[in-house]
Amino acid sequence: MNDSPLAPGSRIAIAGASGLIGSALARSLTADGHEVVRLVRRAPRAKNEVRWDPEARRIDTAGLSGCAAVVNLAGAGVASRRWTEAYKRKIRDSRVLGTATLAEAVASLDEPPRVFVNGSAIGFYGATGERAVDESAPPGNGFLPSLCVEWEEAAAAAQEAGVRTVFPRTGLVVARGGGAWAKLFPLFKAGLGGRLGDGRQYWSFISLHDEVAAIRHLIDTESLSGPVNLTAPGPLTNREITEAMGRVLHRPTVFAAPAPLLRLALGDMSGDILGSQRVLPTRLLDSGFTFAFPSIDEALTAALR
What we know:
It is built from 11 helices and 17 strands. With 305 residues, the protein is of the alpha/beta class. α2 (85-108) links the parallel β5 (67-72) and β6 (115-118).
């Protein structure tokens, strides 16, 4: 197939355009002259806004007409609060119902987009310990793996309609403005940072710059469909990342959060922090993608700039 970038001035719809990744993607696309259509849950205030209500399965389908790509990054924050049963339902519904709503809307268009990029996560693989996994690995066990399976399956309508559908399984995004590192940076800057648990768990990270560049690569690369891991090529242990944080920030990293305390404080979410995921971006690299910030020191420095 011909892998070519979007034509200048293309319309790209983004659900979740106000989030960490979505807002950075919108800025990148706009800077290159594309028209970004934002899906919003309120009455539209601008001509580039389209109203939707994912929980009610409603969307202004006409607003997606003429879009070359639809990108779905919407979903309740996984690390925003303690995982009560009610909040786990919110995490699930915000992703599964939103994906199904968008996939059905995309499938119903007379001229569907050339690609539907639907967010997913490396939580698909569950805890892998020291074992490295790529896109060929099966799902793990637990809440996050079952959520990711449902999340990806909810895009079936778009796939059945023949729309190229890609699932970026994103790792831990290194950024100051959101995600895990938004909480880690202040602690480490204050000299209070340290390893979590025994520190031997693998963290599969990616810089925000590379995350956005990779999503744009998925949009442009016609040969890519299905799951694609968005993680830097060299996942590191929490202990190694802690050392890098101290190195880049010039701060001590003597403190450690004991695993029992983390489990008590975070509940079910502690499994996501203490679990080990050694995930490799095999398909991304095989498709010719080049990382700008492949190492943790480079990713941290880029985030701090």
